[in-house]
Each structure stands twice: as structure tokens, then as C-alpha cells.
Description:
The complex is a heterodimer. In chain A, 2% of the residues lie in helices and 49% in strands. Chain A contains 2 helices and 49 strands. Chain A is globular. The relative contact order of chain A is 0.10. Chain B has helices at residues 2-19, 259-263, 404-408, 526-535, 553-557, 563-571, 593-614; strands spanning 31-35, 46-51, 57-61, 66-70, 81-86, 94-98, 101-106, 109-114, 124-130, 141-146, 152-156, 159-160, 164-165, 174-178, 184-189, 196-199, 205-209, 218-223, 274-276, 285-290, 304-308, 313-322, 325-334, 341-346, 352-357, 369-376, 384-390, 393-398, 414-420, 430-443, 449-455, 462-466, 482-486. Chain B has an 11-stranded antiparallel β-sheet with strand order 20-21-22-23-33-32-29-30-31-28-27. A 4-stranded antiparallel β-sheet of chain B has the order 1-26-25-24, with no helix packed on it. In chain B, helix 4 (526-535) crosses helix 7 (593-614) and helix 6 (563-571) crosses helix 7. Chain B is globular, with a radius of gyration of 26 Å. The chains are: A mainly beta, B mainly beta. At the A-B interface, strand 31, strand 32 and strand 39 of A face strand 8 and strand 9 of B. Strand 39 (484-491) of chain A pairs antiparallel with strand 9 of chain B.
Amino acid sequence: MRNILLLTLLSWTCLAQQQVILKDLTSFQHPSANWTIEGAVQAAYSDTSLQVATGQGVLVNTLRNGKYKRSDDLTFAFSHGDIHLMFDFMLPKKGNSGVYLQGRYEVQLADSWTKKQLNYGDCGGIYERWEDARGKGKEGFEGYAPMQNASKAPGLWQSMEIDFQAPRFDANGKKIQNAIFKKIVLNGILIHENIEMLGVTRGAVSTQEVAAAPILIQGDHTQVAFKNIRYETYDKPSIRMGQVRYDYYTGKFTEPIIGTAKPVESGKLDKLTYKVIKAKNDYLIHYQAELDVPESDAYEFQSYWTGSGVVKVDGIELNQGAHWYSEMVSAKANLKAGKHRLEVIQVKDFPWGPQALGLYVKRIGSHPVALHERTSLLDPEAVGVIEVKANAEPVFQRSFAMHHGKKKTHVIHVGDPSGMHYSYDLKQGAMLQVWRGPFLNATQMWEDRGEPQTAEPLGVTIVLDGKFPLVLDHQAQADSTELVYKGFRLKDGRPIFMYQWPAANVTIEDNIRPNTAGSGFERTLSFKSASTMQSATELILGNSYHGISTISTKLIGLQGQSYFVQWDGRQGAVLSPKQGLKQQRIPMQGNEVSYQLIW
Amino acid sequence: MKNIHYTFALLLLTFCAIAQKPTPKSEQDYYEIKTLPIPKEIYLEVGGLATMPDGRIAVSTRRGEIWIIENPYQLTNHQVHYKRFASGMHEVLGLAYRDGAFYCSQRGELTKVTDTDRDGVADLYEPIYQFDISGNYHEYTYGPVFDKNGDMLVTLNLAWVGFGEGKFAKWRGWLVKIHPDGTLEPFAAGLRSPAGYSINQDGDIFYGENQGDWVGSGRVTHLAKGDFAGNPGGLKWAKEPNSPFRLTLEEIQDNGAPMYEAATKVKNLKLPAVWFPHAIMGISTSDVLQDTTRGKFSPFPGQYFVADQGQSKIMRMGLEKVNGVYQGFCINYREGFQSGILRERFGLDGSLFVGMTSRGWGSTGKDEFGLQRLLWNGQMPFEIQDIQAKSDGFEISFTQSVDVASVKKAASYALRSYIYKYQHQYGSPIIELMNLKISGVEVSADKRKVRLVIEGLRQYFIHEFKLEGIRNEAGEPLLHETAYYTLNQIPSGSKLAVQASHRLVETVAVKAVVVKPKKKSTVISDAEAMALLKKHTCLACHAKEAKVVGPSYSDIAKRNYTDKQILALVYKPNPQNWPEYATEMAPMSHVPAGDVLKIASWINGLRNKALLNHD
């Protein structure tokens, strides 16, 4: 099969990272005795320490002797320049740690759960800088609070993604470009974008900035745990492209096939660009160039064009099809080191739409290389967000909403001034998701014609199973339950949903509101008409494909400890309705049953 | 000296008075528009309007709110007061008030909204009916309109997937009746985009339809139970056991022949009561409302007022029943509203509340949304009062006595008839165009009625009347000189025995023949271009610089079309050329090629100007 092999398209994140192996501490330099490799950790949201279970895969910092010291900070074995770093972490209540890129620029990890006013010292903050010379009380300066509080409760696994660009130096070692946090994403929420670091943050290993240095995890404050540490660095060489030859054809081409046509113009270019095309439509352009592949590896070709086109390497078609310029088309090829022949053919047989041509090559371990002139690819325009706010009083908004990849059509989102919000499927009496932060993004409903008609959470979201939670004794939970929706009434501005449940022959009310502590929602389902069935009714507290962690009596962690469920009343039982799935049930007592969702 | 000066001045004044013709009257001299101010933080994209029994006006919006407006008649103060009654619903495109509660349509639900504790804010939202929807944005739900039995009419828009499609969700493309007990009765089908409908004083339902696939032009159709109004998108549901009729797509001809031909095979295919010629009488027909104010709202009690979203105007429709079939005419009434009109409801004072939104659809009125009131100041304009079909022509009545000499002149009239294709393609050109000749005219004794005997009446066709030369006794022209009558039925009855006295006076054109040296440049001036563009109603959708419903002429110029390409595109538009515009252009093949080419060269001249300006 010659020197090229097509790969099926895999998600970028699967391939893009190297994993830090956490079966022992060999990935770290001189770890203090506080750092251990464990199998699992857990904690209640009110616990100031983590419960640890032996095993592998989790990196834990626990105070072993006396007091925490700076020498308890943990330094990675490898040095990095530009890096894309992803990891999961868990903090106990009042936990405090941090990740120093290059040992110098700290992203704070801290228990900032439910805090309203944030600063640089809160979770996801870029820590302040410090100079004693500035004078007493004025030493601290700069520092960046996260754009919003994206923290989850202590005792839950949280995720962080950091895209960091190292400072650049000239041949004499003079800094010519500051370090930049290109992106920081906490629990799925973008909290910083393109923050330029004017210097190192407080507690850096050195004030001297460098091109490469190892990551340091702050270990001198409290317990903290990490898992799933993945990263990509960008040290490998990538493809270089030689001079481009282009041939320009005019006429009606619906497909990127030249056939017997003769070019009306030919020429040479340094890079690909559509700007040599004279017409708005009815043309074909054919670019050819030599690619110099430095090392045998998989190379991903990412193309953008308006119209139809094809990218070929050594005559084999990679990217193809009819697309709009804002859609990325991606295909991978395994290329051997040496010379390869690139061809790009592009046609546009309609007059509308902006002309564009972009082609990047991405090798894991190196930054994408643009084979096109910058001006050949437009930046897609963003529109201003239309936000529904819930700052002053409870609000609700119906819309379509996506849930597990499906569009639900009868959804209501309920926003609360406490900053906790949920989405609810009115057809199913089911909670679809809960989140904390700003309320609702309605841009896709109300901008222009609003073709998607969907609304989305603006905060840290826990996606729930979207099923009606009650079943009759010992019955399986159906994907959909026959219910007659009877509307909702407002109490203190918050809806209480009303249903007729024919199988149990009862009228039900479903009342979801913030719990008194403000830590989550309390959901109460009550029977409003007499029924002989209530003693035989069970409430399903949650379904989990990642096990159920029993943290204490009537407090469990679900979906890999991504949220807590807590309840009073009877203990209930954990069922396993199918392979890999765990389900916590409790029996209904009296006319109502309630539980809390905490995250 | 002083005296002399004085006399001279007087003379000058007199001279001016004689030389000046009376200024032509405009719509605003009779029909006034009042604007209700909207607080800046309210996004009042109007979806529904309801007049409450106490005279307050309720407005529902795209953003799911219901606002109640106090002082809507602006009696002692121009300021009006908004109170949010309900919120959080999913795009409320229809609103009604009945027995202390609001009834409204959300996309997926007909909802009753009640304020049980009477604190002015709703606290109970109950579904009357849950509609099936697929999630396609174009599945709009409109209504309810209550009938006299207390049943609720709701119309269900088709989905849009490059064409109108109803198969994804039940009863899309239908008008359904929801009974108070929550049961659904399918009533009529063939609807495409039924944004506006109402029930007249006789209990008959009329709805406005937009041009689109299977809809050659905008129109108003009377819907009786079991009617099929023409778009087959929702016919999947005619197989349901409770459908009032059976019909499949395969039974409908799609050969571009007019709808009346298809109706000979499909018995329940309902022809429009009145066609609204596309781009001339609107581009997106919305609400239809009969004037039930007994002379308070307009000089035309009992006639209908049909709104248009894209052209931000209100037209007038007069109906009569011939052989049991509704038909009639349409004519412009009032243009110049602030945004795209979706809703009309009468206030208790007989003024018409006009609720507007342009959202992503675009409209001639440039505001994103608005709320205005239309009222008649009581002055009698010179207008066509009514048009009625006769066995041999038409009888036109006027609001004022006509100048008999003007009525007798052949040059006062231009009459023609035409029709549209019935096809799956979007819209239609005008087809089977024919100029009509008047063979006799009879003026009634009170000079209020003119009977026209016409050669070549064609059943089902749109008969266009241009009465440019008609004058009242004061010598004034009509406020609106052009009307369109849809002749579904030709009545029986006596024919006018045409005598010499009925013949029209053919005026011999005595035109000074001036041979002008031919200009080198064939490009017409801006003023000439504007006159042509106005004459052919192009300006309803396009402007020189601004994006209106369609692209600006400057933007068209940038496409580098040749004049001939522009001609071809005017006659056969290709909406794909402008995918960012919501409203597709109608074929304008009735505009003479010479005029289009003049316009085209003017458009292309704009490109050169633009280049010059940039240099």
C-alpha cells in the first residue's frame, strides 16, 4: 500500500495527549513522602479530608509528618514549553493547591464552591504576582479572577484544561514574547482566554523566565488528588511545503475534476491562496506542491473551503466534499519521512458565499502548520450572546434543548437567583440537567430566525438521565413513561409541575427548589390523590455507568463522582439493571419522597 | 410705492394659487398611525395581540412573554404602561383572552395562563393541548382564535427543509380545532405558512397565506371543514382515521397549470377567495381582520384588513359571495408601519392595534419590532368603495361622486387579467396575461357607481383595475387607483345592453413630437430609475443602498451581472444567489424588458460610482 495509509477519523483528544502514568511516582522529581499513588479517593462535600483506597491511577497529596513545606510541592519529570494540559482533580472542603506551568505561572486550585465574588485566588484564577520591593502591603499585583465561578463541590472530581504558550526568547536570551494562557477551561467552562503573563506569579520557583521547565503542583497547603493527567507538547518538527504551482480553469465545474479542460492561467505561489482566482464562481483551481515530511507519523489535514474540493497526497484523496468555509474537514494520513506530492483542487459553481481556502497540517507533538496565506481564510464572525438572567427572582424559559445528542421539544429551563438552574422535560417529568453559574444562553433561539431554537446552560452542567424517576415496585425504569402533563403552578415564582400518572392512577406534583444550604436542589415528588399504590412505589435516585460511590449513609456520588445525591428516609438498594449500570432506588413512604442533588 | 408693492405681492399670491394644482392627497391625510412607545429593555417582538374586555391590550412575544398595556388609547397622555403578566413560554405567536384567562400558542402547546391570586402576574400555566413537533424551527404554531362554540382554532405551520414539509409531526399544515376538553378535530389542510386567520361575522374562517411552494402568490382563502388549500406538505395526515378527507400527493397535478385546473380533479382543493399579487400586494400576508367597528375604524365597514409582514403595510379586501363562493378584491390601504406586521386587533375605540416584528425575516419598516395603532380621522377619502362582479363585467362603487367625463374616457382605465402557476416550485411568474377592453360604461344616477362591461372576462383569473384617470367632482384622483379582483365565479344576471351612450371616448393622443438627439449614455438618472422602480413595485423590497427585504441595488451591482443577466434574473430569480435573505424574490416577468434593462444599466452604474467613491 505504498507509503501512505488512511486512518479513520478519531477524536482529537484521544490521540493528542500523552498520559502521565500514575502507577508509581516515576513521573515526578524527588516527590516528598506526602505524595502517593492510590486507587480511589472520595469525600463528602462537607469533609475537610479525602478518604483514600489503595490501588493505582490517582495521585494524592496527604500530610504525613508535621507541617506542609514548600518541599512538598511536586515537580514533574519532564520540561515543557508550549503545552496543552488536561487533568482531573479533587479537593476536600477548604482545599488549596495549584498548578504552576513551567514552575512559574500558577493556575489556582481551591475550594471556591458557591462563592459569588471571585478573585485571582479562587479556583481557576491566575494567581497574583508578588514583589517585596513594591513595599509593605503593596507586594501583590496583577492576577486574574476566572470569568465565572466554574467550581464544583469539594469531594467531586473536577476537570481542567490549560492551553499554555511559553515565553519566547531571542538568540541572546532576551524575552521577545510573554507567556500566554491561551485558554483555561474549568469543568467545561471557559474561564480565561489569551491572558498574557507580564511575569511569573507569586511562589514561582524562580523569577527568571525560561523557554522550558517542568510543571509544579503546589503541595504545601492541603490534601488534593489528581488523575487522568494528559498533555501535548509541541517539540516535534512538522511538514514543510515547497513552492506551489497553480493552474486556473474557468467554466462550469460541479466537481473538483479537471477532465480535459485547459488552464487559462498558471503560476507559482509561496503558499496556497484563493486570491489568484479572478471569478466569484464557475472556476476550478488546481494547486500542486511538494511536501517534506520530516519523520514518519500520522499527519492530519484540516481543510476549509466554500464550494467543493479535494485534498490529495501522492494521488490519494483525503479531504473532500461540498462545504461552507467555516466547516473544518479533517482526514489523517500516515506518511513516511521524505518527499510527498500535495494536490488541492477546488471549485465553486455558485455565486454566493465568501471565497475561502485554508489547509492546516497537524501532527501530534507539533503546532498546526498553515499551508495557506492568512488572507485566504476568513475568521468566522461571532454574534453577541442573548442571555436570560435569573439574578433578581426565579425565571423560567421554554425552548428546544439537546440532551444526550437528541433534540427535546418540550423543555423548560428554570433559573434561580441562588445561581442554581435546571432543565426539565415536560413530557417526561424528568430532570435533564442542572447547572450553577449564569442562567441561559438563548442566542440560538432569538438571534435572527433562530433556526436551532435551542437554549443552553451558561454554567457548570451535570447532565442527568432525563427519565421519570418513579417506578412501581420492582419494575424496570422505562426510557419513557406514559404521563399526562397537567401544567405547572408557581409558588414563590418557582414552578411546581403537575402530572397524571396513569399506571399508578395518581396525580403527582414535582417540586424542585434550592435546598436551604444553597448546595443543590431538593426535589420532592408527592401524590396529590389517594392511591393504594404509594407503598409500592420506588424513587430512582440516579443511574450511573461509572459506579456508585457510597460516601456515607444516604450520600452517594454518581457518574464517577461528578455529583452527589443525598436523602432522608429509608436506605434503599442499589440495583444493576444492565451490564455496567448501577441504579439507586429508595421506597416511597407516605405521600411524598424527596432527595437532594448536590454538585 | 407702498401700495404698488402690496398689489404686486397680492398678484403674485393669486398667481401662485392659480398655477398650483391641489396637492395630491396621501394616506396619512385620512388614516393616521400612532406609535405606542416601548420601554427600552422590552423586546416586544409581537406574536399575538388580544383586546381585554376592559379595553387594555395584551401582547405576546417571541421571547415568550405576555405584556398587558394600560392606557393603550393614549387618551390623556401619550405614554403607555407595560406590566409583564406571563413569561418563559416558547415563542407565543397567538393570544386570546376569554373568561378571565389568556389562551396562547407555544410551539408545542396550546396553553391557558391564569392569575389565580389576582396579583397581576400569572401563576398557573395549563396545557389545553400538547402539539407534536419535530424540532424544525419552521413548525410555527399560531392561535388560538375562538369560535362561537368556544372551540379554539389553531394553525400549524409546515417545517422547512428546502421546501414545506409536514410529515415530521402530526397535523402540520393543518388548521385544527381544539375543543375545551382537550380533544383535537382536524378541520382543513393544505396550509403552508398560515400566520394569520380569523372568523368573520358570518362565522366563516379566512386565512392569509404566503407565497411559497405550491403557492404562486399571497392570498386569502376561506376554509370550510374538509377543505384542502393547496400545499400538500401535510397530506400524510389525511390518512388518519379522523381526517375529514382522503387525498394523496400523487393525486395532485404538478405541471405548472393554474390551481383552478387542478381543482377540477381534486374536488376539495379550495381556490383563494382573493389573490394578493406578489410584491405588489405584499410579500408575506399575515393577519386578516374584518372591520366590525361599524364605521369607527374605516369608511369601509364589513370589509377586511389584511396585513403584510414584509412590506409593513395594511391592505383592504372586499368580499362578496357569488354562487355560494367567496371572492372579491384587494387594494392598498396604508403603508409606512415601523416593522413587519404580524397581528391586527381592534381596540374598544375602533382603532386597530398593529403588532410587529421583523426578526430574521426582514421588512420594509426598519424597526426590529413595534406596536402602533391605525385610525381613521373621519375625513372621507376618494377611494374605490367596492367592486362587484356582474355577468358581463364589474360594478365599481366609489366613496364620492365621480367626474363623469373622467369615467367616460378610455384613457382613464388600464385593465388586464392573469393567473399564477400551481407547482411545487417556490412562487410563480404571472402567466396567461391578457389586456382587457371595456366595451361599455354606465354611471349610476348618484355618480357613485360605475358599471364596466368587459370583453374577455375569465373565470378564476385575477382582474387588475388601474383607474389612473378617474376623478371625483373636485378633480382629485383616487387615493388608491389599483385593485385586483379574483373572479372565481361569474354571476348570472342581466347584461347591460351597450348603447352608444355607454361607449368610451377614445382620446386621440396629441403628443408633441420632439425629436431629441439620442444621448450617448443610455444610463438613466437616479430620479428616472426611482420612478421606474416605484412603478414596478421594486422598491417594496429593494433600496439603492440599504438592505430591505432583498439586497440593495449597490450590493446587486457588486455581483458584476451583465444587464442581460439581470433581466434573466428578474424574470426568473434564483433565490440561491442570496441565501442570507429570508424572503425569496418573485419572478417579475410582467415588467417590460425595456424597463428592466434600463434599471439594470442603472444598477451596474452604481458599481462604477462605488469604485469612484472608494478611490
